[in-house]
Amino acid sequence: MKNKKLTAFIFMVTALFLTSSVYANEVSAVWERLYNKAQSLSQKYNIMVNIVEQHDRDMIPVLEKALDEQVSAMENQRTITDQLKSDSFTKLVVKELGRLKDREAAPLIWDVVDNSDDPFVKGEAIIALGRVGAKDYSNKLNLMLRNINMNYGNIQDQRKNEIVAYALVMALEKLKSPDSYSPLFFAANGWYSRKSGVKEKASKALLTIVDDPADQLIGIIKDSKDFGLKLAGLEAGVISRASEENKARLAVTALDQGLINSPQSVVQKQQLKSLRVRALEVLEENGAKPESATPLMKSMLIKYQTERLVDEDEMVQLFETAGTYHSDAVGTILSEFLAYLTDRKESGGTVSFRISKSVVIAMGNNGSKVCFEELTRAQYSDSWENSIKREAKNAVQKLNK
Fold first, then answer.
1. How many CA atoms are closer than 13 Å to the CA of 291, on its beta-carbon side?
2. Is residue 133 within 8 Å of 94, Cβ to Cβ?
3. Considering just the CA atoms, what is the radius of gyration of the chain in Å?
4. Separation between Cα atoms, residue 25 and residue 170, nearest integer Å
5. Average pLDDT of span 378-397
6. Side-chain half-sphere exposure of 315, counting CA atoms within 13 A
């Protein structure tokens, strides 16, 4: 008895489903016939509003046909009123094709991007390309965003470009092409106003576009002429999902750039200092300790000794970082620097107490036996303050553990 009731229930549900499907198909056919009979754009628009409200994939052919007609008519719009009507209609259709994820409509949607002068229409079409997953158009969208990133123009053009740029960021975030990382990075650090939301949206997109953007960021850090962008490249790498090894590579690249470039203004001088300090901080915090950083640390010590091109804050950070490197190579450059300081003290020269204390502590943290001789010399030198001698003694004890 129970089985008979269950069978009857299933039959009833199936019949209802088939009836609903037939009804839905007939409704779609009715709207299609009505649209095809419409004469004016206003009539077509009103009918299309009803079609769009159904969110029915069976209406995709009608939507594609309507969009094709609008693209063909774009060059023939003679009045502002006609143009406004056409733009509203096009946005309506494009948005629905994107919502329905009609991948086959991508060429038509691109034609809208390529031919429309209205930033809102263009932007809606760009967003639709992202929604339908039109990966074939990623490179074209990348190029568009690159061009806008470099376009300052007049105030009116800036606003239009911001509208299109925001749409490009949205689309590229969905398409997730690794090649999009660079234009998105420059959008995140570009000229756009806070009101536009472009920079914030692009910054969020950078976190999802690729898992490990180290190679792209290394290229940006090396090639950018703007020192502020070099630092931004390093920061983007730090918050990314790059491996510890690749974050260390980024830091080494940034430190190198901070040393080989010469500032032409006070602002650039501060930017390069910030780049060097931040790179050292990343190396200090990072579990990976690349040997390639060692000669750069030595270069900083030489610059301090010969030209005083590195200030006290940087030197202290350098020693804090060097202390996390447990290698004879780093121990050697620290020992050589302490020898330089001790020689100056014994010859009556002045040295920075803060720097002196920092290098001694770093040598103890480094743990290399090569540090023993110079630490012992400082411990028993009559020229050093008692506080430095105590630090040297503590460092020697660490070496002996």
1. 3
2. no
3. 33
4. 34
5. 96
6. 24
* Per-position DSSP letters for 275-296, written without gaps between them: HHHHHHHHHHH-S---GGGHHH
What amino acid is encoded at 113 in this protein? Answer: V
Alpha-carbon gap, residue 196 to 216, rounded angstroms = 26
282: burial class by Cβ within 10 Å (0-12, 13-18, 19+)? Answer: buried
DSSP 3-state percent helix, strand, coil across the chain (nearest 5): 80, 0, 20
End-to-end CA distance of the chain: 86
Q: Is residue 320 helix, strand or coil?
A: helix
- HEC states along 41-59? HHHHHHHHHHHHHHCCHHH
pLDDT digits (tens, 9 = 90+) for 196-228: 999 999 999 999 999 999 999 999 999 999 999
The domain spans of the chain are 211-288, 304-401
pLDDT over 70 (residue 4): no
Model confidence over 89-120: pLDDT tens digits?
999 999 999 999 999 999 999 999 999 989 99
Least trusted range by pLDDT, from 46-60, 163-177, 252-266, 359-373: 46-60
Please give the model's pTM, rounded to 2 decimal places: 0.86
Q: Alpha-carbon distance 276 to 315, whole Å?
A: 10
To 10 degrees, the CA torsion angle through 319, 321, 324, 329?
A: -70
Average pLDDT over every residue of 161-180: 97
DSSP output for 20-38: HHHHHHHHHHHHHHHHHH-
What type of residue is 111? D
| pLDDT of 173 higher than 90 | yes
More confident residue, 310 or 141: 141
Mean pLDDT of 73-90: 80
Interacting residues of 28 by C-beta distance below 8 A, sequence separation 6+: 54, 56, 58, 59
Report which of 236, 210, 243, 209 is spatially closest to residue 221, judged by C-alpha positions.
236
Farthest-apart Cα atoms in the chain, separation: 110
